[in-house]
Design a protein that fits this description.
The complex is a heterodimer of chains A (about 100) and B (about 170). With about 100 residues, chain A is mostly helical. Chain A is about 75% helix and about 0% strand. Chain A has 3 helices and no strands. In chain A, α1 packs antiparallel against α2. Chain A is elongated. The model of chain A has no long low-confidence stretch (mean pLDDT about 85). The longest helix of chain B has 26 residues. The chains are: A mainly alpha (about 100), B mainly alpha (about 170). Chains A and B meet through α1, α2 and α3 of A and α1, α2, α3, α4 and α6 of B.
């Protein structure tokens, strides 16, 4: 049985991060942008776990634990913000939420 | 065997991540995101982190995405409305992201290509060691994260609450 090299996981994490970045930059729907950011966070988590495997040290896994908790907090507050914005403006299209643009 | 599992779930993760980013309907994006998260959870198991994989399925796929789903259904989101900027802007964004990801991946690849993966050690997989480290070395960050979650819950409740409307100025039904 040949084990998969850790660099493959790191490569995958890099590509997933790039996909998430592209989504966050090109989408116009607030929720979709949020999902893309979650994708980027997940790619980061994958890289952290891969490094923890590489160096045989579980600190990376613990960092992933904290990242997940912060992501949960972020999702709760962000989605509440979207609901509040939707109440005011009837859209969460970010091209139309330009109240703070000067 | 391990290589086959890795390739299968890596490709699945990539394909569903592309659907997340490309699909115009948020519901499909969400469902595809669930698939991505499950695939990445399988990869976590392969990397010797079963606890993180369980957290990924329970917290990410189970809780966070259900929250997203509720909001999408609550707001009754259809397809995206505005086309979104000039096409040149879009392509520039895609190109920039591709360049950045390519650089990142090249960096990872060139740095660690030669490193052979050591056999999985008992200590890395063991939940006992993980819990010890979490509750001894990282106890303070753990408590702070708990506080952060509490603050987030309070903030979300206040933000999403229906604003108080005085009785005589009912703006909208």
């Amino acid at each position: 049985m040949t084990a998969v090299p850790v660099s493959w996981y790191l490569l995958l994490a890099g590509v997933l991060f790039a996909i998430g970045t592209a989504g966050a930059l090109t989408r116009r729907n607030g929720i979709a942008i949020f999902l893309s950011i979650e994708l980027m966070l997940n790619a980061g988590n994958l890289a952290l776990v891969a490094y923890s495997r590489l160096w045989d040290d579980h600190t990376g896994q613990l960092v992933v634990f904290f990242v997940m908790a912060v992501a949960a907090a972020e999702a709760a507050v962000g989605l509440a913000l979207f609901i509040a914005i939707y109440r005011q403006r009837r859209t969460i299209d970010i091209n139309r939420i330009n109240l703070m643009r000067w | 065997m391990e290589t086959a599992v890795f390739l299968l779930f890596a490709l699945l993760a990539l394909a569903s991540a592309l659907v997340v980013v490309a699909h115009r309907n948020p519901i499909y994006s969400l469902m595809s995101m669930v698939l991505t998260l499950f695939s990445v959870a399988v990869l976590f198991v392969l990397l010797g982190a079963p606890f993180i994989a369980a957290l990924q399925v329970l917290i990410y796929a189970g809780a966070i995405l259900v929250l997203f789903l509720f909001v999408v259904m609550l707001l009754n989101l259809q397809r995206e409305e505005s086309p979104g900027g000039q096409p040149a802007q879009r392509w520039a964004a895609v190109l920039g992201a591709g360049l950045f990801g390519g650089m990142l991946a090249t960096l990872f690849w060139r740095t660690y290509r030669e490193t052979p993966a050591a056999p999985l050690s008992e200590r890395l997989v063991s939940l006992h060691a993980l819990a010890r480290a979490l509750f001894e070395e990282l106890l303070l960050p753990f408590e702070i994260v708990g506080l952060l979650l509490l603050v987030a819950v309070v903030a979300a409740t206040i933000l999403a609450r229906r604003p108080h409307v005085p009785p005589e100025t009912e703006a909208e039904p």
